[in-house]
């Protein structure tokens, strides 16, 4: 039962926690029913598809396309097949067979700043708002986003120490340059805001 976030925010804390727990349990059951397990980081998705013991690479037909994935044993119905929820970098995506009983598939996301809700569009979705990245680093972010995050972190740190933020420092620097360029002006009683 989906509800709007406004309704959800109005619920008492216990009800919100109960609903979140129920959603997590439902998600866990839905994901466990899939013919594969998967996890992701911002830039990649990794899947493990179980295959019959003794399976070799030559026994498999794997299709990795920009927006499509299919895994099957030759001459049989696919174990999984469908449209990927987001596009991948085909040349950077790979697959291998491990211990002749599992296919490991590594998908490089085309958009490495976005969490996937599912692997194939027709499979159950996860709530990406609940993802807590295990080891996301500033270096994983694109330049503009990284700069913005670093500025926010710096400003927050400055505020906690009672020091000027980056914007305030820029204003102070501009004023000092102006004062240095115009020594004939008296700024001793000036109020700067």
- Overall SS class: alpha+beta
- Provide the residue-averaged pLDDT: 85
**Proportion of residues in extended strands:** 15-25%
The Cα radius of gyration reads: 26 Å
Number of strands: 7
Q: How large is the count of helical segments?
A: 4
CATH architectural type of the largest domain: Sandwich
Regarding CATH, which class of the largest domain?
A: Mainly Beta
Remind me, CATH topology of the largest domain?
Immunoglobulin-like
The domain count comes to 2
Protein architecture, described:
GO terms for molecular function: unfolded protein binding. The structure is a single chain. The chain is an alpha+beta fold. The chain folds into two domains: 126 residues, Sandwich (Immunoglobulin-like); 36 residues, no CATH class. Helix content is 31%, strand content 21%. The chain has four helices and seven strands. It has a four-stranded antiparallel β-sheet with strand order 1-2-7-6, with no helix packed on it. A hairpin with a 2-residue loop joins β3 and β4. It is elongated. The protein starts with a helix and ends in a 12-residue tail after the last helix.
